[in-house]
Amino acid sequence: MVRVIKGFGSAHVQVTGLDRVGRVVDRLGDSNRDSRTVMLAVTERLRRMQLDHFAREEGPDGQPWPPLKPETIMARGGKSSKGRRELRGFRRQAARLGVRLSRAEAAMASAAVTNVKMLQDRGTLKSSLAKYATDSEAVVGTNVKYAATHQYGDPSRGIPQRQYLYITESERSELVAMLTDKLIREALRH
Protein backbone atom coordinates (compact mmCIF):
# COMPACT_ATOMS: atom_id res chain seq x y z
CA MET A 1 0.00 0.00 0.00
CA VAL A 2 1.20 3.52 -0.75
CA ARG A 3 0.14 6.35 1.53
CA VAL A 4 0.95 10.03 1.74
CA ILE A 5 1.03 10.99 5.39
CA LYS A 6 0.42 14.51 6.63
CA GLY A 7 2.06 15.36 9.92
CA PHE A 8 2.48 18.65 11.73
CA GLY A 9 4.34 20.67 9.13
CA SER A 10 5.64 17.59 7.33
CA ALA A 11 4.69 15.17 4.60
CA HIS A 12 5.87 11.67 3.74
CA VAL A 13 5.31 9.02 1.09
CA GLN A 14 5.16 5.64 2.76
CA VAL A 15 5.15 2.26 1.06
CA THR A 16 3.65 -0.29 3.46
CA GLY A 17 2.09 -3.70 3.29
CA LEU A 18 5.38 -5.20 2.22
CA ASP A 19 5.41 -7.67 5.11
CA ARG A 20 5.33 -10.41 2.48
CA VAL A 21 8.67 -9.15 1.19
CA GLY A 22 10.13 -9.61 4.66
CA ARG A 23 8.59 -13.08 4.95
CA VAL A 24 9.95 -14.14 1.56
CA VAL A 25 13.39 -12.87 2.45
CA ASP A 26 13.09 -14.63 5.85
CA ARG A 27 12.94 -17.89 3.95
CA LEU A 28 16.06 -16.91 2.04
CA GLY A 29 18.27 -16.61 5.10
CA ASP A 30 19.53 -13.57 6.98
CA SER A 31 16.36 -11.51 6.85
CA ASN A 32 17.60 -8.56 8.89
CA ARG A 33 20.37 -7.88 6.43
CA ASP A 34 18.73 -8.93 3.16
CA SER A 35 15.24 -7.46 3.49
CA ARG A 36 16.61 -4.21 4.88
CA THR A 37 19.05 -4.01 1.95
CA VAL A 38 16.17 -4.51 -0.47
CA MET A 39 14.06 -1.85 1.24
CA LEU A 40 16.98 0.61 1.31
CA ALA A 41 17.22 0.24 -2.47
CA VAL A 42 13.47 0.85 -2.71
CA THR A 43 13.73 4.02 -0.61
CA GLU A 44 16.55 5.34 -2.79
CA ARG A 45 14.49 4.80 -5.95
CA LEU A 46 11.41 6.24 -4.25
CA ARG A 47 13.40 9.35 -3.28
CA ARG A 48 14.62 9.80 -6.87
CA MET A 49 11.02 9.54 -8.07
CA GLN A 50 9.99 12.35 -5.70
CA LEU A 51 12.91 14.51 -6.88
CA ASP A 52 11.72 13.94 -10.44
CA HIS A 53 8.30 15.33 -9.48
CA PHE A 54 10.03 18.62 -8.62
CA ALA A 55 11.71 18.65 -12.04
CA ARG A 56 8.47 17.89 -13.91
CA GLU A 57 6.39 20.31 -11.78
CA GLU A 58 3.25 18.23 -12.14
CA GLY A 59 0.86 16.41 -9.84
CA PRO A 60 -0.06 12.73 -9.73
CA ASP A 61 -2.64 13.21 -12.49
CA GLY A 62 0.05 14.53 -14.86
CA GLN A 63 -1.39 18.05 -14.79
CA PRO A 64 1.07 20.94 -14.30
CA TRP A 65 1.16 22.61 -10.91
CA PRO A 66 -0.74 25.90 -10.69
CA PRO A 67 1.48 28.74 -11.95
CA LEU A 68 3.26 31.08 -9.58
CA LYS A 69 1.53 34.35 -8.81
CA PRO A 70 3.09 37.45 -10.37
CA GLU A 71 3.81 38.73 -6.84
CA THR A 72 5.86 35.62 -6.09
CA ILE A 73 7.83 35.94 -9.31
CA MET A 74 8.44 39.64 -8.68
CA ALA A 75 9.61 38.88 -5.15
CA ARG A 76 12.05 36.31 -6.49
CA GLY A 77 13.22 38.59 -9.27
CA GLY A 78 13.72 41.43 -6.85
CA LYS A 79 16.06 39.38 -4.65
CA SER A 80 19.06 39.77 -6.91
CA SER A 81 20.40 42.52 -9.07
CA LYS A 82 20.30 40.06 -12.00
CA GLY A 83 16.56 39.50 -11.42
CA ARG A 84 15.88 43.22 -11.26
CA ARG A 85 17.87 43.75 -14.49
CA GLU A 86 15.86 41.01 -16.22
CA LEU A 87 12.57 42.64 -15.22
CA ARG A 88 13.74 46.05 -16.45
CA GLY A 89 15.00 44.44 -19.66
CA PHE A 90 11.64 42.85 -20.39
CA ARG A 91 9.84 46.13 -19.78
CA ARG A 92 12.25 47.98 -22.12
CA GLN A 93 11.91 45.37 -24.86
CA ALA A 94 8.13 45.58 -24.63
CA ALA A 95 8.27 49.39 -24.70
CA ARG A 96 10.33 49.28 -27.92
CA LEU A 97 7.51 47.23 -29.42
CA GLY A 98 4.97 49.76 -28.24
CA VAL A 99 3.64 47.56 -25.43
CA ARG A 100 3.58 48.92 -21.94
CA LEU A 101 4.08 46.16 -19.33
CA SER A 102 3.41 46.48 -15.65
CA ARG A 103 6.02 45.13 -13.30
CA ALA A 104 3.83 42.04 -12.73
CA GLU A 105 3.43 41.39 -16.46
CA ALA A 106 7.18 41.76 -16.95
CA ALA A 107 7.76 39.32 -14.08
CA MET A 108 5.48 36.74 -15.69
CA ALA A 109 7.22 37.14 -19.05
CA SER A 110 10.62 36.90 -17.36
CA ALA A 111 9.59 33.75 -15.51
CA ALA A 112 8.37 32.12 -18.71
CA VAL A 113 11.67 32.79 -20.45
CA THR A 114 14.07 32.19 -17.56
CA ASN A 115 12.26 29.06 -16.35
CA VAL A 116 11.63 29.96 -12.70
CA LYS A 117 11.25 26.68 -10.77
CA MET A 118 8.32 26.23 -8.41
CA LEU A 119 8.94 25.03 -4.84
CA GLN A 120 12.67 25.44 -5.47
CA ASP A 121 13.45 29.04 -4.62
CA ARG A 122 16.29 28.09 -2.27
CA GLY A 123 16.14 24.31 -2.73
CA THR A 124 15.43 23.65 0.95
CA LEU A 125 12.29 21.56 0.45
CA LYS A 126 13.73 19.48 -2.36
CA SER A 127 17.05 18.84 -0.61
CA SER A 128 15.30 17.96 2.66
CA LEU A 129 13.75 14.76 1.28
CA ALA A 130 15.00 11.98 3.51
CA LYS A 131 14.55 8.22 3.33
CA TYR A 132 13.93 5.59 5.98
CA ALA A 133 13.58 1.83 5.65
CA THR A 134 12.69 -1.12 7.83
CA ASP A 135 12.46 -4.76 6.81
CA SER A 136 8.96 -4.18 5.41
CA GLU A 137 8.55 -0.44 4.91
CA ALA A 138 10.05 2.28 2.74
CA VAL A 139 9.45 5.93 3.63
CA VAL A 140 10.52 9.14 1.91
CA GLY A 141 9.53 12.47 3.38
CA THR A 142 10.54 15.77 4.82
CA ASN A 143 10.18 17.56 8.12
CA VAL A 144 10.38 21.06 6.65
CA LYS A 145 7.71 23.19 8.36
CA TYR A 146 6.03 24.36 5.16
CA ALA A 147 6.12 20.98 3.36
CA ALA A 148 2.52 20.06 4.14
CA THR A 149 1.35 23.54 3.13
CA HIS A 150 2.57 22.98 -0.42
CA GLN A 151 1.66 19.28 -0.55
CA TYR A 152 -1.96 19.93 0.45
CA GLY A 153 -2.36 23.65 -0.25
CA ASP A 154 -3.74 26.30 2.08
CA PRO A 155 -6.74 28.08 0.53
CA SER A 156 -7.04 30.44 3.51
CA ARG A 157 -3.61 31.86 2.60
CA GLY A 158 -4.07 31.61 -1.17
CA ILE A 159 -1.47 28.82 -1.53
CA PRO A 160 -2.53 26.24 -4.13
CA GLN A 161 -1.87 22.53 -3.77
CA ARG A 162 1.33 21.45 -5.51
CA GLN A 163 1.71 17.76 -4.75
CA TYR A 164 5.28 16.57 -4.99
CA LEU A 165 5.06 13.46 -2.77
CA TYR A 166 3.12 10.77 -4.59
CA ILE A 167 3.55 7.61 -6.61
CA THR A 168 1.97 7.24 -10.04
CA GLU A 169 0.72 3.89 -11.28
CA SER A 170 3.76 3.52 -13.56
CA GLU A 171 6.11 4.35 -10.65
CA ARG A 172 4.30 1.78 -8.51
CA SER A 173 4.78 -0.83 -11.24
CA GLU A 174 8.45 0.08 -11.44
CA LEU A 175 8.86 -0.36 -7.68
CA VAL A 176 7.11 -3.74 -7.77
CA ALA A 177 9.34 -4.87 -10.64
CA MET A 178 12.40 -3.65 -8.77
CA LEU A 179 11.35 -5.52 -5.62
CA THR A 180 10.65 -8.67 -7.60
CA ASP A 181 14.02 -8.47 -9.33
CA LYS A 182 15.90 -7.89 -6.08
CA LEU A 183 14.09 -10.75 -4.34
CA ILE A 184 14.87 -13.13 -7.18
CA ARG A 185 18.53 -12.08 -7.09
CA GLU A 186 18.62 -12.63 -3.32
CA ALA A 187 16.99 -16.06 -3.73
CA LEU A 188 19.52 -17.09 -6.38
CA ARG A 189 22.38 -15.90 -4.23
CA HIS A 190 21.42 -18.27 -1.42
Please state the structural category.
Answer: alpha+beta
Order of SSEs, N→C? EEHHHHHHEEHH
Task: Work out the oligomeric state of the chains in this entry.
Answer: single chain
Question: How many extended strands?
Answer: 4
Distance between the termini: 28 Å
| Contiguous uncertain segments of 5+ residues | none
Strand order of the largest sheet: 1-2-4-3
| Biggest beta-sheet profile | 4 strands, antiparallel
Q: Round the Cα radius of gyration to an integer and report it.
A: 22 Å
Counted up, domains total: 2
Question: What best-fitting shape do the alpha-carbon axes yield?
Answer: elongated
If you had to describe this structure to a student in words, what would you say it looks like?
This protein is α+β, with helices and mostly antiparallel strands and 190 residues long. It folds into two domains: 2-64 and 123-189; 70-114, no CATH class. The protein has helices at 19-28, 31-56, 70-77, 81-96, 103-114, 124-127, 147-152, 169-189, and strands at 2-7, 10-15, 130-133, 138-142. A four-stranded antiparallel β-sheet has the order 1-2-4-3. α1 (19-28) packs across α2 (31-56), α2 runs antiparallel to α8 and α4 packs across α5. The radius of gyration is 22 Å and the shape is elongated. The mean pLDDT is 76.
